[in-house]
């Protein structure tokens, strides 16, 4: 008895699904072949004096060479807001400036895609330019992991730091560590000198103390030995003298 047509379709459906998934996986592998992550590098924050030019540095790393499909976009998020406005685009050697009034006729290209540089210059920066700047680079088939973000502060010329904050922090840290090491070395030298002086003074004291000489006493045996060592004639004279002294 032949199986119903519907049952045959149900039996064949798992094989068809497996075949379909295999085809999709192969297609996805072909599409993603040679694709890697594109990394964007920007400073975390910069300070620009009011009325001067500010350079927004943006570097990127990509395994593929740049070409006609490579493009750069800059966006701006004003301070205190959540909105983002695109104000600059660069592609195929052409600059496309937006119509956003705060940046009109102020932005110029300062990068070099062959050197993986997507930086820009902004002229005559004002306090309205305070905010976050976003650098987005596309270089297909590489995929951007995350665009670069720069926090920019426009300040008065009098309060503009001479060095970036991270440079100042590094210098202060190095100075503190250097002073700590120097003080430690000085204390170690002083401690060693004091110990050497104490050891030298102890040696001199032990050398200056002279031992007490004890007077040796002659024992009776020593006297008897002395008498015995005299000649025999001396013994006779000694006995005669003793006899005379007794008679008298």
Automatic annotation (TrEMBL):
Gene3D superfamilies annotated for this entry? Immunoglobulins
Q: Where is this region: Disordered?
A: 202-248
Membrane topology, as annotated: Single-pass type I membrane protein
Q: Where in the cell is it found?
A: Membrane
Source organism, top-level taxon: Eukaryota
An example of a Pfam family matching this protein is V-set
Composition bias of kind Polar residues appears in 203-213
Q: Which UniProt keywords apply?
A: Disulfide bond, Glycoprotein, Immunoglobulin domain, Membrane, Signal, Transmembrane, Transmembrane helix
PROSITE patterns attached here? Answer: IG_LIKE (PS50835)
Cellular component terms per the entry's GO annotation = cell surface; focal adhesion; plasma membrane
Predominant location category: membrane
Q: Where are the transmembrane segments?
A: 165-191
Ranges for domain Ig-like come to: 36-146
Family annotation (InterPro entries): Ig-like_dom, Ig-like_dom_sf, Ig-like_fold, Ig_sub, Ig_V-set, Myelin_P0-rel
Residues annotated as signal peptide:
none
**Family, per entry:** Belongs to the myelin P0 protein family.
Protein name stated in the entry:
Myelin protein zero like 1
Which gene specifies this protein's sequence? MPZL1
């Amino acid at each position: 008895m032949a199986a119903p047509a519907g049952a045959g379709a149900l039996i064949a459906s798992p094989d068809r699904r497996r075949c379909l998934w295999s085809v999709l996986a192969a297609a996805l592998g072909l599409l993603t072949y040679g694709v890697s992550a594109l990394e964007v590098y920007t400073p975390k924050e910069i300070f620009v004096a009011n009325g001067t030019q500010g350079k927004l540095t943006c570097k990127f790393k990509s395994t593929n060479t740049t070409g006609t499909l490579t493009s750069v976009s800059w966006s701006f998020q004003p301070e205190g807001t959540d909105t983002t406005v695109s104000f600059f685009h660069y592609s195929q050697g052409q600059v496309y400036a937006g119509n956003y009034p705060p940046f009109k006729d102020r932005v110029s290209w300062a990068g070099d895609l062959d050197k993986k540089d997507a930086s820009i210059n902004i002229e005559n920066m004002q306090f309205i330019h305070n905010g976050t700047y976003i650098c987005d680079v596309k270089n297909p088939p590489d995929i951007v992991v995350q665009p670069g973000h720069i926090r920019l502060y426009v300040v008065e010329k009098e309060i503009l730091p001479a060095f970036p904050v991270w440079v100042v922090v590094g210098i202060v840290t190095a100075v503190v560590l250097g002073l700590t090491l120097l003080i430690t070395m000085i204390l170690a030298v002083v401690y060693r000198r004091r110990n050497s002086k104490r050891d030298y003074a102890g040696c001199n004291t032990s050398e200056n103390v002279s031992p007490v000489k004890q007077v040796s006493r002659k024992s009776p045996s020593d006297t008897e030995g002395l008498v015995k060592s005299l000649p025999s004639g001396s013994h006779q004279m000694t006995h005669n003298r003793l006899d005379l002294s007794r008679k008298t």
